[in-house]
């Protein structure tokens, strides 16, 4: 199922040092398929910690930097053939834009965490830069890497469900059901802090995943929305609960919920899409199944790696059916797409779209506009138009 | 678990003749516990069909009437001791008010289907009449009859979850995913016809169940809502899809979805209630389980008939744990409550509230106001206050 | 879906007085469809309790007897047209044979609980009597009344799965995980007492249900078996745990487990049947679903009351799809079959086999032979032939 | 959660070239945590294919061998400090013994696929060699790497369930429901061929996983068994279906099923363990959940990565709760254990047993004896003693 190609690509990581959560996930995901190796880093905003973290991960001192600026300078000082193939940005949101913009402007391929930037203006600038520089730019909306999400996308977009009428997406967590940020928890602290996270809390952190999942699977464009954001845990500055009604171009309706105060829930991301002929249901906590309720005939359960899945879903797996793949594998599928694109460009060719299957800078920019629109709708307590 | 008391109560049924759906459900539910017997009827608006239907059900000719007016007149002509104990109204919504009002005014105990009436003014009149006549008046919001719904109610209201912050309720069906009303289907025809169903379609038919479930379980009062109703199947006069955001008194937020165009779904009523300490989940299609996600500690699955359920939940069952009870049993629990109330009044006592546990005329009236508010919010496309 | 026919049949019940469990289930099941009414009884082996129980259930004193012998005598003293249509036997197993034999010999239609008798010789006598008297004789192997079990039966027997190769059936309970019989619990006491229950405990009580489920669904005949019975709770006289390997005529293999010491399990009856083309799975605790794993293509979930079910499954329901039916409804389906057979015979006709669909005396007799064979195999610790 | 230590270990792989299935799984699993790199290989029994496969995986030519003998010779020719740290054997079963024996005898640490060898005599020799050489020897009974299996192990062994009374384990697959070996399928061909697979088919391939899962979780020793093996697909030389009854030392009973002809099933490995106080259930296809039915109180669902799991389960994860981990992660946990042991030995210390948590050569040897015993019991059609 998997032919690990040689030679490995080389990547630099910005952020993701000790105590960070998401950096290790990126490294596991990249390691899984053996296609790339960590070659440089600026792993923390604290120089000493950056150095230590890099050493612990086996980065040679000459490539282990105290800041992203130093890393950029060092890379540019090398001949093009010796530079890293990819820069991975896993810092808190507030620094995404300056870092991503600088590397993209310098012609580097980039993978950046979501949300892409703090403002849609920043995002627009980045889109323009990436287009001008013709570089690869991936955004880790990682849930679209699940094989069964790709199967859902194929079934919706091929018309198997008929015209889509209703979409309900929820991302429910419980980890912020208490004021965890008051206990010194690092993840909670920056995610509830407007200075680091921007104008949105739960909406930005997980609501943007929900938006991307809907857009990716259905291809529908949100036309209008009315949102209600709340900081339900006393004293919290950003929303920890967001719900909204959606209207899509073409007449479909939708509901989106993103909430981090559902005590006892873990990562309950779930999508339901209803069309004229049937309804699809998928849940991240049971990701190897896709449920297809048909208007006529018994409900079907599609499972990962079956021979009757679409090509995109089959390519997204590594092991036989019935052996569960999980979060890291899905995350790795985003990287597979990025790597395919980079390799194709290095080879002077164009990647097969089924291989270069990953969320791009435009998806990231739409996500930022979505956050701005929902925040405004909630503040103004009314329906607002959205230009997807 | 069940001691069938003697003697049986006697009930009259209005509507529910041949080809009707819900009348047979009421009869099964009443029959299940052997507490009452069908003694009189006006089973159809077509006199001949009324007569035939009554005979098929074993109603003696002298008690088998061509119209509800004839039935009322005949009952009143009898000595009080020979009259039926209860009148069950299972006609389409447009006739609920005149029939219910007439019987309540005449001092009869009544069970009426939901939604209670077409307008909140009618509902208000009915509430006043029932209060004045001091009669029993049940509304068949039957889902609150499920034992595990009563367990959820107890867990929420006793404070086990802490302050409630978020409520998500959905009632998703698929049977109106096509223009079934154009094929002569009786159920579809009247439910999509404003003359019979009133100002709301899916909202009235199943959204009102969702509202009642939330109100019953949480005791929260809706303070404001913004709704979006759509007739997503071309040519339909009433909504077949309704979604709304809710704000409750005290700060909790909510989402309510009621939709009949989710092709392939059956009766997917599901409730999720999150409080400070945990989250409850219940689904009508697996009614014997209640899932309790705890903020600390493993998730708990409560099952029907366990000795560790609350008294109200335990009383609502008939057979040991692990033997599923279903829709008819839950429906029968509403009747158990009504019968307990009637028997207590006949005995000149007051029923134990855990026995007389059924939705009353006030619940029905609130349901009608809820429908009116949601329809207005959708038409005006804005948040509206609601006086629960 | 439901046409309640008139007039009602009249039945007598033997056993099932206060504190009995299964008698109330039979009465609920019979009441549900309104086809029959309790007209006579000998509800307890204690005369006083029999009288009280009968009165509480509304049996007229003239039909409320202190013993089954008195009931039989009184019935025979009446003209044939005034006798009950059916005698329901819900006593502990040790008295099944004398009672059933006496009523069958006297020409009464009978429904009897399982296991049918203590010995296969008794069962053989009963089969002979019923054949000679040409009476109706139902055995309440109630799980075969579930609509989805009937759907499974149709799918297996129609050849949709191809030749059957493997059958795994389990009935796991936990209620006897402690020495409940030592606490005075009535149900536990007689079920663990050889004098009342015969030579088998769990095997007889629930293993016989498992055997019947396999035989009913697959039509396969057990050819050989090796069993291992254990009394795993110290001091128990009868098996509380039974497992066995099965070989069927034609080459299929099987496993049967019946155990009452799985602490925390409720009524976990589950069946899995694999054929050349697919595998069916059904669980009693989620009875409205039948899972069909196909060799080629996505797994299918059949749900109760869909239009694409077989005729037998559709006839076995009362309400629309998505509204769960449960244990009582399934039990009532056995009675529907019995009633259809009785009504046909009263009318001098032959019932449609899809209506008269219930386990008969021959099924009960095979169940007793099965128990004897498994007990012997376990005692001799070897494979034994079985003549199904 | 994971601190990738430096420097990487270096491993050689025997087998696992192009078209092999399990070799790629081992490589993914090893890559995931970045602890080791593929440094040498003899990847196929066909020299040319071995060379090509090695190159595709980036093995330098000097370390890329045409046979395992050549690899062994080349390694031994190097100074000890330049040799690989570990030899991974992923060939068909028939060659496990000579390869494993040669490398263990030469002092190499080894990971070998299961079943360990063809005969218990070979296995005994290997156990002796490993003991004498004091090397690390892991057997990839990979399912014991799942965090929730380790949680189950802790709950059983700590006595939380009380004395264990009943164990039911099944490993059901469907991929051999047709004569796939006749179509040229490589996996099917060698697994159904006695020359490559030894005396057992399904029993050896997946039944040995089931045995290991039971032994690992419960610590119980099988004392006696009666097995029934069948080749249910016509013309097959080895069993494709195996069922057996087990008796454990101390009085517990068990059932083990391993079958590859359940058309439509994928990798349905499931374990149920009942003790005096409760019952645990785990399924490989939903590996992030462990269900704990309690005798008293609601059923509990333990999920991966919760803070209330045991230490062994928590260490076996990489990402937060609610983000599913799967087969590769579990497999990687076996390697984590092996690596911890190797690193400790290199450092001259002893590994923390919670880190060096992997199936060892003794587990592999018991698995081979189990296969021999079950094959004999089936052939002789009787209970046989087993010395676990």
Helix proportion of residues of chain A, in percent? 25-40%
Q: How many helical elements of chain A? A: 12
* Proportion in β-strands of chain A: 15-25%
Q: Biggest interface: chains and residue counts?
A: A-B, 46 and 46 residues
| CATH class membership of the largest domain in chain A | Alpha Beta
Q: Write out the CATH superfamily name of the largest domain in chain A.
A: Dihydrodipicolinate Reductase, domain 2
Question: Overall pLDDT of chain A, averaged?
Answer: 96
Unreliable segments of 5+ consecutive residues of chain A: 1-5
> Please, how many domains of chain A?
2
Mind describing the biggest β-sheet of chain A? 9 strands, mixed
Shape of chain A: globular
Distance between the termini of chain A: 37 Å
Secondary structure: elements and pairs:
4 copies of one chain form a homotetramer.
Chain A: E1 9-14, H1 22-32, E2 36-42, H2 47-56, H3 68-77, E3 86-89, H4 96-105, E4 110-112, H5 120-133, E5 137-139, H6 147-157, E6 164-172, H7 186-191, H8 194-197, H9 202-218, E7 222-230, E8 241-248, E9 253-259, E10 268-275, E11 278-283, E12 289-294, E13 299-303, H10 311-315, H11 327-346, H12 361-380, E14 384-385
Parallel strand pairs in A: 1-2, 1-3, 3-4, 4-5, 6-9
Antiparallel strand pairs in A: 6-10, 7-8, 7-14, 8-9, 10-11, 11-12, 12-13
Helix pairs in contact in A: 1-11, 4-5, 5-12, 6-9, 9-12
């Amino acid at each position: 199922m998997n032919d690990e190609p040689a030679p490995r690509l080389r990547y630099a990581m910005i952020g993701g040092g000790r105590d960070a959560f998401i950096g290790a996930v990126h490294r596991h995901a990249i390691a899984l398929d053996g296609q790339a190796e960590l070659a440089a880093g600026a792993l923390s905003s604290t120089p000493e910690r950056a150095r230590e973290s890099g050493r612990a991960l086996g980065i040679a001192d000459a490539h282990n930097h105290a800041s992203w600026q130093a890393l950029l300078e060092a890379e540019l000082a090398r001949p093009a053939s010796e530079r890293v193939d990819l820069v991975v940005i896993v810092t808190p949101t507030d620094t995404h834009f300056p870092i991503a913009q600088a590397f993209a402007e310098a012609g580097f391929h980039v993978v950046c965490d979501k949300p892409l930037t703090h403002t849609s203006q920043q995002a627009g600038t980045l889109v323009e830069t990436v287009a001008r520089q013709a570089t690869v730019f991936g955004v880790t909306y990682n849930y679209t890497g699940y094989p069964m999400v790709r199967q859902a996308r194929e079934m919706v977009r091929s018309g198997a469900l008929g015209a889509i009428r209703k979409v309900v997406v929820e991302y429910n967590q419980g980890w912020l059901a208490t004021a965890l940020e008051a206990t010194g928890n690092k993840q909670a602290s920056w995610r509830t802090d407007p200075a680091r996270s921007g104008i949105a809390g739960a909406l930005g952190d997980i609501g943007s995943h929900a938006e991307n999942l809907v857009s990716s699977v259905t291809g529908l464009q949100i036309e209008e929305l009315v949102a209600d954001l709340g900081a339900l845990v006393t004293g919290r500055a950003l929303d920890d609960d967001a719900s909204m009604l959606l209207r899509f171009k073409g007449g479909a309706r939708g509901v989106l919920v993103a909430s981090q105060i559902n005590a006892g829930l873990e990562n309950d991301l779930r999508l339901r899409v209803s069309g004229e002929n049937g309804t699809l249901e998928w849940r991240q906590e049971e990701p190897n199944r896709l449920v297809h309720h048909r208007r006529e005939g018994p409900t079907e359960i599609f499972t990962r790696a079956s021979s009757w899945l679409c090509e995109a879903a089959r390519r997204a797996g590594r092991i036989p059916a019935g052996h569960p793949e999980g979060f890291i594998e899905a995350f790795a599928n985003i990287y597979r797409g990025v790597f395919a694109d980079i390799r194709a460009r290095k080879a002077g060719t164009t990647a097969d779209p089924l291989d270069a299957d990953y969320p791009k800078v435009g998806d990231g920019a739409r996500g930022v506009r979505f956050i701005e629109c929902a925040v405004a709708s909630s503040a103004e307590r009314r329906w607002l138009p959205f230009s997807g």
